[in-house]
Amino acid sequence: MTSMTQAAPGTPSVKGAGLPVQIGYGVGQIAGQVFRDLPSLLLMFYMTTVLGIAPDVAGATIFVPKLIIGLCADVSVGIMSDRMRNRIARRWWLLAGVLLSPLAMILLFHVPDGDQTAKLIHIGGAFSLYMAVFASFSVPYLALAGELTTNATERNHIMAWRLVFTAIGVLVAGALAPAVVTAYGGGQPAYEAMSLVLAVICPMALLVAFFATRGNASEAMPRETLADTIAKRLSPAMALAKIFRSRFTPLLGVNLMQLTGAGMGYAALLYFLTYNMGRSDAFQIIGGIVLAACAGIIVAQPFWVKLSAKTGKKRAYIYATLLYAGTYMVWGFGANWGAGAAFALSFIAALGNSGWAMLGFSMMSDVAAEDPDCAGLYSAAWIACDKIAFALGGTLLVGLILSSYGFDSAKAVQGLPQVDSALTGIVMAFAVVPVTLNLLAAAIMARFSDVGLQGAES
């Protein structure tokens, strides 16, 4: 995944990122992935099956802070990191995550005793802090990728390593966290113990990224130009309007649709395992499913890098999307195939997921690199899109679908089976709606996007 670039005589020098920088930068994604995935995979399941909160209420409680606080914080951090980049390099923002991520993680799952209203208020407040802390390090972290190298192809390698550590982050959130919950008995104390473990892992990952990028990240920017001065005077609304141009908007829209579908599948996974597959050991086998997905993500990266160099990033992106959608359609109607089939399907789906995720980030970085004065805003829009999508798919839509199809939280707390209509709702949330969104996204990418058309020169 390494790349060497040399400038021809008489041309500007090209800044490259060596393997230690690529790997060190990628380690930081472990924290970002844990913060991204944990609410979708465990928080809603915890609220419905441990605290006894109805799915639609639980989904709305998570959705509102994720949408409002997450969006506002992403945009604010993006604008500030752009405006302050002459004084504070983006990598220094990672220290905010180092200091605050343990507090946010611990508060989210340490819910005090009380009635349901008090619990909902606590979770809403704690999750608002969680989203603000997430924004404080995730937006500058993504923007930092464009500062590590000036070569568009090498950004593919950086994003490929980032996806490798995405797999590790998925493993931490999707396998280690459930394993800790299982080891401590599955109740309220188990979730509290799990949050303490993650409160150690996340700041350590961000510290590695902070120190690994110190030689490549821009520590001091050139003297401010007239364009810089004008950009700083733009209002947030004008600044956002500036980046929503035709070249970026279709890519962002496609990303929103696919991540909404991915969030739904992820949030519905434990429900699918527990009720549709009838697995009383859902928290045990989910570790194997996530491990298979991580293996798929890691194995696929060299393939997608080579394919995108040959066919262009856009075409490779569409191929990856179709593979992902097709696998989930098969999986949704294979509840009776057993755990082995689930492991295999998880691996195959991850091959596709890793492709469109990596290539989407790479194309976003290409666009941002063309307009470095607004790189933080591009990153903020991308991260905000991710959070909005997982708020819609990973909480609100899944909660609404489960409730509308008759999922009973009181039965879930007592360990009782659900009615047949509830099982249908789980399949809708886990497979049917996500597959539809991904197929629409592939069609939009093919028809409207002009990003990533080139091959190795893109």
Query: Which structural class matches the secondary elements?
Result: mainly alpha
Helix and strand pattern = HHHHHHHHHHHHHHHH
Name the shape in a single word: globular
* Assembly category: single chain
Give the strand tally.
0
Strand percent estimate: under 5%
Low-pLDDT residue intervals, each spanning 5 or more residues = 1-14, 219-234, 452-458
**How would you characterize the largest beta sheet?**
none
Task: Describe, in plain words, how this protein is organized in 3D.
With 458 residues, this protein is an all-alpha fold. Helices cover 77% and strands 0% of the residues. The protein has helices spanning 19-27, 29-49, 55-83, 94-109, 116-148, 152-183, 188-212, 226-232, 236-243, 249-276, 282-311, 313-332, 339-369, 375-404, 409-414, 420-448. Helix 13 runs antiparallel to helix 14 and helix 14 (375-404) packs antiparallel against helix 16 (420-448). It is globular, with a radius of gyration of 21 Å.
